[in-house]
Amino acid sequence: MSRGIVIFDLDGTLIDSAPEIHAILNAILTEEGGTSLSEGQVRGFIGWGTDHCIGKAMGAAGLDPEDSDLRERITAAFLDRYETQHENTKVYPGVVDTLELLATYGFALGLCTNKATGPTRAVLANFDLEARFDTVVCGDMVGVQKPDPAPLLKAAGDLGGGPVLYVGDSEVDAQTATAAGIPFALYTQGYRHAAVGDIEHHEAFDHFDKLPAVVARVLRPGTA
Ligand SMILES: O=C(O)COP(=O)(O)O
Ligand SMILES: [Mg+2]
């Protein structure tokens, strides 16, 4: 039997990155003459990729997202600061122990995020998480982003195929999993833009300590 695969989303699932993205974007947007945004506003823009988030934030701050010079300058400044600034980012409780446990059980672990490669690598390296994943698929790697199923299918393919569970925090992840024909576990403490009941999922959980049992129920029916 091929080994089970668990693939994770990043922002709002493994890490609480909204305070950091908010702090960095607000500093840049206000330097460029924009108004300051609330963390809640910025949280609402996360999940569709770095470029989407920057465009939405520019619009909300009163800057023109169609001004390509300005957008490029803001993007470059954002990526530059995100390389080294992680003091406002937190790994959600129980994540590290759960990743370790699942690896010990023999599951292959993957990451599939809409975050661009640069910021993904920077934040994984900062929290010493990179080596925990057997594959990392970022938003700029396959030409399309979630909710297109291609990035998730690439991650599953990289891990050799087999029974897969996708773990994410938002309707974007749920749509991606459905389109890929992969079961979905919803982490309810991230950046959902809809009620739990309105997001298609096989299981929902509110703490990573509960994930190993979810994985066992979905991937190894009869063992939990
Ligand atoms: O929107 C982003 O940049 C990343 O979001 P994700 O990790 O939840 O896919
Ligand atoms: Mg997410």
TrEMBL record:
The keyword Membrane does not apply. It catalyses: 2-phosphoglycolate + H2O = glycolate + phosphate. Pathway: Organic acid metabolism; glycolate biosynthesis; glycolate from 2-phosphoglycolate: step 1/1. Its cofactor is Mg(2+). InterPro entries: HAD-like_hydrolase_sf, HAD-like_sf, HAD-SF_hydro_IA, HAD_2, HAD_sf, PGP-like_dom2, PGPase_prok. Pfam families: HAD_2 (PF13419). Its EC number is 3.1.3.18. This is phosphoglycolate phosphatase. Keywords: Carbohydrate metabolism, Hydrolase, Magnesium, Metal-binding. The gene is gph.
